[in-house]
Amino acid sequence: MILFQEAYKKVLDNTFDFGDEQVAILESMGRVLAENILADRDFPPFDRATKDGIAINYFAIEDGCTRFKIEGVAAAGTPQQRLSNVNNCLEIMTGAVVPENADSVIMYEHLTIQEGWATVTKLPNKGQDIHYQGSDSPKGAVLLEPGKQISAGAINVLASVGKSEVLVKKLPKVTVISTGNELVEVHERPLPHQIRKSNSLSLKAALQKQGINAALIHLTDEKEMISKAIRKVMETSDVLMLSGGVSKGKFDFVPEVLEELGVEKVFHRVAQRPGKPFWFGLHQESRTTIFSFPGNPVSTFANYHIYFLPWLYKALRVDYPERKVVLAEPIQNKTDLTLFKQVRTFWKNGSLHAHLIVENGSGDLTSLANLNGFIRLEPRDGIYDKGELVPFIKT
Amino acid sequence: MILFQEAYKKVLDNTFDFGDEQVAILESMGRVLAENILADRDFPPFDRATKDGIAINYFAIEDGCTRFKIEGVAAAGTPQQRLSNVNNCLEIMTGAVVPENADSVIMYEHLTIQEGWATVTKLPNKGQDIHYQGSDSPKGAVLLEPGKQISAGAINVLASVGKSEVLVKKLPKVTVISTGNELVEVHERPLPHQIRKSNSLSLKAALQKQGINAALIHLTDEKEMISKAIRKVMETSDVLMLSGGVSKGKFDFVPEVLEELGVEKVFHRVAQRPGKPFWFGLHQESRTTIFSFPGNPVSTFANYHIYFLPWLYKALRVDYPERKVVLAEPIQNKTDLTLFKQVRTFWKNGSLHAHLIVENGSGDLTSLANLNGFIRLEPRDGIYDKGELVPFIKT
Which helix (DSSP H) or strand (DSSP E) does residue B259 occupy? Predict the structure, then answer.
């Protein structure tokens, strides 16, 4: 059995790159960018009117002119025009190109317009209401860098520079294997000694949130069958996630099978609760990482968030945010284990506070529906006081 | 022009229910539950061993017995057994049913096993290492209630009670319409006076994050065409989202068209920046809500998060979290408008702090890639000081 900090470090020390892939722009949402995104032209690409009104040459204003003959209309989406006389004006619409020899825009609110003439009711400043070419970013500027997680705002930038396809980090191929003869399908009616499969579905749902479409496989407690299935999965998957089968039971064939298949055990059992019988290993040949979680729902759910998510983020080269929350009530950890307690957080005065969820041991399924994270408590003689900051694992 | 608070209230006053629908369990992830989820049996459904070891009757221990003949094995997934003699034991595996006349489990770590006999090396407590039938939830108990947003943890609960199909709140059907003759497709090479469509894609990506698969339509600035398209969309969509075409320009036909089609204008123009020329209305007949956002990227992006998301959450009967963040630097708002400033947040001592993003007016596209929210600043004579809490709109 190893300490939590050691186990955590070992998991993070064993990440590798899954490579890159091209995806369509809308599929890149939430993914990690793997290329530099450059401005393919100036932004804005031309001197752009930001108001509806008239475009004038400020020289006329300096010359005392406040009444302008309207030569025509500059609409958005039409090529640049030119004032034939700098004492005239063009009506101009938001988004249109400012005429070649105009330099200021006056909005309708500061004009009266009558019979083809615009009269200025409020004198403009030179250069007003124009968004100048290249003032956001000159052509060639780096707008987004690799490692950025693509947000809806970034989609706007990608679209603007014409990236209909985007190079992103590949996500790992994950297979979730459930084991246990007591498990039946969700739609089935279990016999009195049976229960429905739930951990593997919960893992699949959590992976779905990360954009990963995991494969699900169920295996009964037969060593031969488990061995054959795992060997096959390792050929195609980057990650093998197991739930159950790693205790000391007679039918817990998983650790034995993994060893026989040449998987290197990095560790088995961590001084933590829940989630103690966690088995973590690597199959060097197929570059498959194995997260073998304990069978009970809270243990599996906790270890997925405690270990797998930071591992995934590190593999994708994205910072995993280290959060802390304020304890809303005192708590103690007089055990010699690192405890992960289920909490429900709430916002108060700009801080995130955590209430403990009343639970009934690590087998308590129903508490899972209410938690939105775990707090981490190292062993301590004294208490963890109300108001103290503790590490928080968001779920 | 109306004040922000008034506009916000009017938007929230105009929500309606989109109804419910059945979806497969894994598709229910992130959706809002629309039914009570009951325990279809006791949880756990039987007295369940939580350790691998032996099951005994504590009477034997009280009687001084520390050495037990092993009668057989109780594996997970097999029917309940019975000790033929209460001085004997059964080996038992985690997840197995505790034998009828046993009441305590002793784990392997506290045993030595030899030639069919188990010798206790550490005396047990009566009833230990058993997760008792119904101790989490008795049959019939309400495990989840309508209005809950379904998390990966909740998926575990749904699976456990056999909900392969789940009743959830329907999401609105949304159509995003972009207008403007200056716009070309993302994969196209724009002429000098043209730009690529980006707002509609960014909105689609943001909606995707809410589980909404929006339809995209582009219309050029022709009144007839806009009118025809909007009429058609209103027949099938719950929400019509427009970007651009709501300024005072000659080709901004949208407000006029909406009015002609019988859409009730709730308001047009809000005393805020960015996002001032926001048009909000309702078509009573088709029950379509119209969010007509200004054309520039930051305005559209801001108003989507400021107005549409709280509207959506309210329509789905889910609390929209009101967040506040700590200002990392002083700022002022000496205008008479409600300002929404782009920020990037970071965690520090359990609080969320916000740095202002240097921006170049409301047309600055590139800042969109870096923000992760907006802070809201009402007009004020004095400054907003570093360390002050201000309302935060997460993006």
Answer: helix B254-260
Task: Name B322's Cβ contacts closer than 8 Å, sequence gap at least 6.
Answer: A347, B391
Choose among A25, A156, A368: nearest Cβ to B153: A368
Distance CA B281, CA B258 (A): 9
- Residue A247 contacts by C-beta under 8 Å, 6 or more apart in sequence? A277, A294, A295, B51, B52, B93, B94
Among all chains, which residue has been given the structure tokens 């403007």? B180
Alpha helices, H only, chain A: 4-13, 58-62, 152-160, 199-209, 223-236, 254-260, 297-303, 309-315
| Nearest residue, CB atoms, B153 vs list A191, A363, A371 | A371
pLDDT > 90? residue B294: no
Pick the residue from chain A with its C-alpha nearest to B347.
A323
| Average pLDDT of the segment spanning A292-301 | 90
Angle at A98 between CA A93 and CA A102, to 5 degrees: 120
What is the strand order of the sheet A288-293 is part of? A215-219, A174-179, A239-243, A288-293, A279-283, A264-268
Chain B positions touching A94 (Cβ under 8 A) are 247, 249, 295
Q: Contact, A242 vs A291, CB < 8 A?
A: yes
Q: What are phi and psi of B140, to 5 degrees?
A: 95, -15
Cβ count near A279 (within 10 Å): 23
Structure tokens at A273: 């609760």
Query: Cβ contact (<8 Å) for B143 and A97?
Result: no
* Helical (H) or strand (E) element with B205: helix B199-209
Inform me whether the pLDDT recorded for A362 exceeds 60: no
Residues 6+ apart with CB under 8 A from B108: A248, B51, B52, B53
Going by C-alpha positions, the residue among A44, A21, A29, A48 that lies closest to residue A153 is A29
CA atoms within 13 A on the CB side of A346: 8
Q: For residue A193, how many other CB atoms are within 10 A of its CB?
A: 21
Could you read off the pLDDT of A49-92 as tens digits, one per residue?
999 999 999 999 999 999 999 999 999 999 999 999 999 999 99
Q: What is the pLDDT of residues B190-204, one digit of tens each?
A: 999 999 999 999 999
3-state secondary structure labels for all residues of B2-48: ECHHHHHHHHHHCCCCCCEEEEEHHHHCCCEECCCEECCCCECCCCE
What residues contact residue A62 under an 8 Å CB cut-off, 6+ apart? none
Domains and CATH numbers, chain B: 4-18+171-315 (3.40.980.10), 20-43+135-169 (3.90.105.10), 48-131 (2.170.190.11), 323-394 (2.40.340.10)
Are B321 and B309 in contact by the 8 Å Cβ rule? The answer is: no
Q: How far apart are the first and last CA of chain A?
A: 26
CA B231 from chain centre, in angstroms, equals: 31
- Residue numbers in A near B199 (CB within 8 A): 156
Per-residue burial over A303-332, b if 16 or more Cβ lie within 10 Å, else e, is: bbbbbbbbbbbbbbeeeeeebbbbbbeebe
**Which chain B residues are closer than 8 Å to A211 by Cβ?**
none
Say yes or no to pLDDT of B362 above 60.
no
Considering CB atoms only, which of B135, B247, B371 is closest to A52? B247
Q: What is the spatial distance between Cα B203 and Cα B240, in angstroms, rounded to a whole number?
A: 12
CB distance A389 to A325 below 8 Å: yes
Cβ atoms of residues A315 and A172 within 8 Å: yes
